[in-house]
Amino acid sequence: MDRSHEELNMVLEELQKKQEFIFMQAKQSDLSQQSIAPVLEELCVRISKIMSCDRVGIWLFNENRTALTAQSIYDRNESSHTSGEVILAEELPSYFEAVQQKRILAISDVTIDQATKELKTHPFCVKGEVKSLIDASIILSKGIGGVVTCDSTKLRKWTYFDRVLAASIADMLSFIFDRLERIEVEEHVRKLAYTDLLTGLDNQYALTEKVMEQIQSFEEGQRGVFVYLMMDQYTEMQGVLGHDGADQMLTITASRLKTLFPYPAQTARLAFDHFVIFLPIKGDLEFEMGRLERNINRLKRPMHISGQEVYMTFSYGVSNYPEHATNVKNGIQAANMALRSGKEASNRKNGNLYNPEMHTYLKETILSEMNLRRGLDQNEFRLHYQPQVNCRTGEVSGFEALIRWQHPERGLIFPGEFIELAESTGLIIPIGEWVIKQAACQIREWNEQGLKNATVSVNISPRHFLHDELPFHLHKCITEANIKPKSLVLEITENVALEDTEAVANRINLLREMGYSVSIDDFGKGYSAFIYLQHFPIQQIKIDRQFINGLGKDPKSSGIVQTIIHLAEMLGLQTIGEGVETKQQWDLLKQFGCSELQGFYFSRPVPVDEINELIRNHERGGKLLLPSVFQ
Ligand code: C2E
Ligand code: CA
Ligand code: CA
After folding, report:
1. Model confidence over 587-625: pLDDT tens digits?
2. 621 inside domain
3. Considering 218, 232, 283, 442, which has the largest number of Cβ atoms within 10 A of its Cβ?
4. pLDDT for 346 beyond 70
5. DSSP 153-190
6. DSSP 8-state assignment for residue 395
7. Distance from the alpha carbon of residue 460 to the mean position of ligand 2, in angstroms
8. In terms of domains, do 559 and 420 share one?
9. How many domains does the structure of the chain reveal?
10. Mutate to test the pocket of ligand 1, among 380, 412, 459 (most ligand atoms within 8 A of CB)
11. Same structural domain for residues 53 and 28?
């Protein structure tokens, strides 16, 4: 059945109109698996008309392309629609191979063609009395995703025009399914962006939004309190109960908090054992504080974890809205300060109420105690480097620079003990600048030693990341060291996202334009990681150690890691698995498609001399393979 040019043009025009209509629908982003069904049904009817076919099917492959599932099938002779039919690759191996290799499979007589030889006995084809078929592959951004099938009960000679038509129809479907997948991923991302993955409580992002909304609808004179709550001895208990036990402790606490502080109170977990509650207050403040204390006491009920009875106590600090803070961030900060100065005080009185003097008090004690400034002036800081390896080949692809403080009296101090203090006193800026300068010089040295493409990642604190001088300082350091900006990776944590989103996005854009890579550290830790994927043009994510630790032990971790890698892949981001300690973890991450790895399995962070020795002994033609990779 030949078609005239004119006829074909008309058909193509109609198709284009349909495509525009679908495009409009998809853009409205209310596209979903349900809303798509009638669209597909209607399309099948139209395709059967355009192609003069007896049966039209739209099929999608499963993940490993071993099966095709019908999304919609239209039988013109029976005027019926069906879906859900499954055909398996093992039943029709030649057909599956042909469909994946050819853009268009146009077969005039299914009984004699190699590709369809198994089809003639397949129940699906027998039922439809298929004699000829023209199938076009639906190509999605992730690769071939499915096929649109047009069957005929008569022998047909397929023309060039038929092929063009089939291909345009398939392209239209590609567009729809790509869009659908994108929307599903976005929906997933949106959900994750506002929840703490471990406990299911809100994260800081969600809390901020909800409390802001509440505050805006407050009546004149209405007040609220922010409560910052932490477990006493969480770290010690983590040592005793192990990782899973500590997670259970957090989950139980979260569920108790939800019960004890129902709506209109808002509860969230910010990180580790840090929880925040916001309570709108109608009546007397003192009465409410009494009730708060009683409720927090009820959290002390024993928890049953791995057959043990665990008793936990809690400390908290309180700040008032609007007396102590007029926005959520300041409210949380003030409550945190009240908590910390409560802990500092010798009587360890719990539940302190914020007062502005705490600010100076805390800063002074910290400064006199640690004297970070002196450490910096006396050149007591060191950078240790931890190799990062390519997940497939095991070759070293870069290093993370990790700061240490060689204290004259106290010995080697790890960043966990002083970074937070440096942040709160502002000393993090000169310290961070020192780190960048040092790292840039190191890149230069390693370049000279033959490692041409190795990158060095530096940790940039939130405060430093948004600092006006950062872009200038970076530029100065890489120019002086004569290295390329792409060899420097800037790691930021999710906390940065809690700052001004627009400022953060602008800063990331600027740094990218300047040629640097930006990476998200501790991804998924339960703050608000996924918000980054929505708003910020980052290049790399580092999957938090806690999930890598759970690989092979706890299915939830494996699921999360796979989701993260899948999302990252779709968005074209590089993934680094952090804290890899076993070969099994490496194997699993390789299987999931992770790009890079870092962890004790390969090497601990070590002084620069040790890296130099590795380079001397193991570098071959610009490539470095660690001895641990051959274990
Ligand atoms: P991070 O950026 O997540 O760094 C990785 C931490 O995990 C390092 O701890 C590293 O020693 C440890 N680690 C690496 N592999 C493994 C493993 O397989 N198992 C286990 N259990 N741990 C592993 P470190 O050096 O104590 O640093 C702690 C944190 O301090 C860093 O976490 C980072 O947030 C911060 N930090 C380090 N250096 C700097 C710096 O120069 N500037 C800033 N602002 N923060 C820094
Ligand atoms: Ca890091
Ligand atoms: Ca990390």
Report:
1. 999 999 999 999 999 999 999 999 999 999 998 888 999
2. no
3. 442
4. no
5. SS-----HHHHHHHHHHHHHHHHHHHHHHHHHHHHHHH
6. B
7. 8
8. yes
9. 3
10. 459
11. yes
